[in-house]
Amino acid sequence: LHDGEVHRLITYIFVYEDLISLTCGAIIIWYFAGSFEKNVGTVKHCILTATFSVLSALLYLFLEPLVSRLLEVGDAKGFMPVAFATLGVSTTRSRMKRTLVFGCKVPVVLVPWFGLCIAWFVPHSSLLGNLCGLLVGEAYGLGYCFCLDFPESVGSKLDQVFPFTLLKRVPGLKYIPASLAERRASENS
């Protein structure tokens, strides 16, 4: 930010060091972001992806000087911080109380923390970046970022404007409508 590189608050999610980290990022995007998009719609997913990216980066920039005194901190790269944010939202707002992890029943709210431990072993993954993403997602899921929520009617109106009208026309891309009624109708058909 000191150098005026504000664009890096969002573009870091597209940076990967090697094929292994790119593959891990693609799997995470496909699994976590895909299920999150099904729940909120494409419009809200796109807006929240950008928002989670920026908020995670800002939190990372705030915590990095403090944490770097104790540990070696890697740069935040790839989609994993945003994926942890979406996972944090999903588990915080989940109606399920318990789920299976490696054959053991655990509280659903602990699942992202187990994932954070596993992500520590992903090459070129930033533990602090992932933690920041998880904290942002948990805060949003608990309602502390209520200003980021917008009514379904606004999402439906955004469905009708560029670039979302263009996304609807891309062959092979599944567009999820913002309206809950439209999402349910498309699931049933």
User: Count of helical segments?
Assistant: 9
Strand content: under 5%
Task: Sketch the topology as an H/E string, one letter per element.
Answer: HHHHEEHHHHH
Task: Summarize the main sheet.
Answer: 2 strands, antiparallel
- How many individual domains? 1
Distance between the ends: 47 Å
Mean pLDDT: 81
Keywords: Membrane, Transmembrane, Transmembrane helix
Membrane topology: Multi-pass membrane protein
Pfam families: Rhomboid
Transmembrane segments: 12-33, 45-63, 100-121, 127-147
Layout of secondary structure:
Layout (H helix, E strand, L loop, with lengths): L7 H4 L7 H22 L1 H26 L12 H13 L5 E4 L2 E4 L3 H9 L7 H15 L10 H7 L5 H6 L10 H9 L1
Antiparallel strand pairs: 1-2
Subcellular location: Membrane
Organism: Platysteira castanea
Protein name: RHBD2 protein
Walkthrough of the structure:
With 189 residues, this protein is mainly alpha-helical. It has one domain. It is built from 9 helices and 2 strands, in the order ααααββααααα. The protein has helices at residues 8-11, 19-40, 42-67, 80-92, 111-119, 127-141, 152-158, 164-169, 180-188, and strands spanning 98-101, 104-107. It has a two-stranded antiparallel ribbon with strand order 1-2. Strand 1 (98-101) and strand 2 (104-107) form a beta hairpin. The radius of gyration is 17 Å and the shape is globular. The chain starts with 7 loop residues before the first helix and ends with a helix. It holds the Pfam family Rhomboid. GO terms for molecular function: serine-type endopeptidase activity. Its main location: membrane.
